[in-house]
Amino acid sequence: xxxxxxxxxxxKSNIIHLTKKSINKNRVKIEEDKRSLSIxxxxxxxxxxxxxxxxxxxxxxASSS
Length: 65
Prior knowledge:
By secondary structure, this protein is mainly β. The chain has strands at 8-9, 15-19, 29-33, 36-40, 45-49, 56-57. It has one domain (8-57). It contains no helices and six strands. Strands 1-6 form a two-stranded antiparallel ribbon. It has a two-stranded antiparallel ribbon with strand order 2-5. A hairpin with a 2-residue loop joins strand 3 and strand 4. The protein starts with 7 loop residues before the first strand and ends in an 8-residue tail after the last strand.
């Protein structure tokens, strides 16, 4: 939502946080070459809303004119 002035809020219990069952957070591969550093790992994560009607926003509905 970068560059947007829209604000939204919902109760914490309405947010669904999904992650891969076997997360490889602890298995990280780090490669270093001169002054460049690469960090590689598998990371699966998603966030969703359970009930849309429980979300508040300051966005106005678009008019169909």
